Amino acid sequence: MKRTWIRRILIIGILTILISISWSILADKKSNESVSVVRSTETWFKDSRWTDQVLYDIRQGREYDSLQIEETAAFLDSRQDTSDFRLPSILALLYEFPDHLKAVDLSTLKEALLHYKYWITDPGEDSMVYWSENHQILGATGEYLSGQLFRQETFTNTGLSGIDHEQRARERILTWLGFRWDHGFTEWYSNTYYKEDISALAALISYAEDEEIVFKATAIMDLLLYDMASQSFQGTFISSSGRAYEHDRKYDDGSIMEKFMRVFWDESPDLGAHMLQTFLLCDNYQIPEVCKAIAKDSGTSEIKASTGLDLKELRAKDLIGHEDHQIMMQWGMEAFTNPEIIENSLSYIRDQQLFSHSDLHAFTDINYDLLLKMRLLSPLARLISPQTDGIAIQRANTYTYRTPEYMMYTAQSYHPGTFGDQHHLFGVTLRNDLMVFHTHPAVEEGQHGVHTNSPAYWVGYGHIPHTVQTKNINLSIYRLPKRKEIVEKELLPYTHAWFPMDRFDEATIEGTIAFGRSGTAYIALIGSDLLHLTSEQTPDDLILEGKDSWWITEVGSEGDGENYSQFKERIREQVAKTTYESGLLSYPSPQGIISLEYQKGFFIDDEAQNLTYPRFDSPWITADREPEALTFTHGEHRLHLDLNQQIRTSW
């Protein structure tokens, strides 16, 4: 009788637990299904040149069109993504040229700033991106300078005073600047998003009254311009990058960044109606002479650096959590679903009720109390390995080899085999309109990217190669999965290269080798199998079939003591002796036998190469990660920076 009662109690207990779990799951499911995505329906202003045009017209001494101001204000009020890109020009107008604006236009801009949403935790539902590195500094700069300008006003979206907003934004600005000093830029060497950073930093340097902010913004501007100077070739700033789009990988001719690079040559370029105008207006910032000298340096240089953090480093640095500085690092790395971060992402989204955001709405699929309480999300994320993991931008150990005739660059051994997104890990620059690189396309040509626009056919990677470089030679191995991952959009069984044959002075395909000459620089792009163009109509898309494949790239020049014919003959001989077996690629070269073992080591004549770099290691500076002070030198020029002691000397 006693055992019967015990059995009944156990059964009742188990049933109660199962019913509770089922009830919880059903309740969560119903709640998740009730959330709809917030999208702005206003689009009438989308073709505007915004206040960028107004600022440009005033600087040119022309009458401006008030409609541009109305459209900018409407854009901010609509809370559409990238509306924060308009903040620097608005602030430049209000701080620099208020006497040039009509009273009604001044009032319109003021009201737009008072009503704007500057940070993700502020009231209101929308689908703006607040978290990426460039958006963080744009939003915080806009909030700080608006609060400083309207200290006694009430900001209608939050009910806070201008002083409150100024003080709140100050903390985020200093956090952002501190992260860049300690770890470098997450969106490393991005010729797309450095523009946004420059514009925001220039506004802070020009208009902030806080001396600490002005000093630290100046120091970080110096570091950003060093990046650009050291990672450019004859004024072309295209290098390995945490975020790059198709045009940013293929050519630089006519781009806004090509024009901006002229500042290193002491020019004041006409940037037109662009947010970078704030830099040209920044009279109290002078580009360090050492950065100009580095940009113009025509010698041969090996440039190494470490920028960013790996996800595995965050917990030890107390950077996983819900505090602003923690979210700024986690989501600034675009890390959302990775095993190290997924539980924190979901709990933060729940706390802040962000499920209606278009980029975060998919978290409703895993928004169940049971998964959080039982700590199941991290192991599930490891098991499933969703393609969204590839959005994360982690630490890059960057290597750049710059000569008078070409530049080759690689993010060394960057997380081989994982998913990619907007990363650009390897390439060669021969001219401002002639780049070469290879990738594994995530989708077929013409299709939308996996996450709206990336990764796509030319943007980012479906799967990241194991890619390494020594001087003028790069080895890259792609080992694609046998079958598509559970939540992968597509798995294409080939890789391809951007090799624009019609832009070379000479170019040929010889079986597994594509040769090209531009002036006195030569390139050999070597595949593991026969190479072929997609079609005669597209003489720039070079296909290499196979899921287990490799590419070798070697660049030479007349300055190396070879003519083009000699270069080609030597390459043919080296290719004949190249071997690949069980993931080990070996290539005989003038540097020795260069070997890469997939997801393992990189060797030159059997000597393992260290691909983990300090913060800087170049002819102009050496420094550890999280440095106390930095000193850059080039010839007679010197720049010394100490962020915390607020010391900056430049000559």
Strand and helix map with partners:
Blueprint: H1 2-33, H2 50-59, H3 66-78, H4 87-96, H5 103-115, H6 133-149, H7 162-183, H8 194-207, H9 211-230, H10 246-250, H11 256-260, H12 277-280, H13 289-296, E1 301-307, H14 324-332, H15 342-352, H16 369-373, H17 377-384, E2 396-402, E3 407-411, E4 426-431, E5 434-439, E6 466-470, E7 473-479, E8 494-498, E9 506-510, E10 513-518, E11 521-527, E12 531-535, E13 538-545, E14 548-557, H18 564-576, E15 579-581, E16 584-589, E17 592-597, E18 602-604, E19 607-608, E20 616-618, E21 621-623, E22 630-634, E23 637-642, E24 647-650
Antiparallel strand pairs: 1-2, 1-20, 2-3, 3-4, 4-5, 5-8, 6-7, 7-14, 8-13, 9-10, 10-11, 11-14, 12-13, 15-16, 16-17, 17-18, 18-19, 20-21, 22-23, 23-24
Helix pairs in contact: 2-3, 2-4, 3-5, 4-6, 4-8, 6-7, 6-8, 7-9, 7-14, 8-9, 9-13
Any descriptors?
20% strand; 18 helices; 5 domains; 10-stranded antiparallel β-sheet; globular; 651 residues; alpha+beta; 6-stranded antiparallel β-sheet
Helix-and-strand structural type: alpha+beta
The number of helical elements comes to 18
From the alpha-carbon coordinates, what is the Rg to the nearest angstrom? 27 Å
Main β-sheet description: 10 strands, antiparallel
Distance between the termini: 94 Å
Beta-strand level of the residues, as a percent range?
15-25%
DSSP strand tally? 24
Mean pLDDT: 94
Q: Can you give the helix content as a percent range?
A: 25-40%
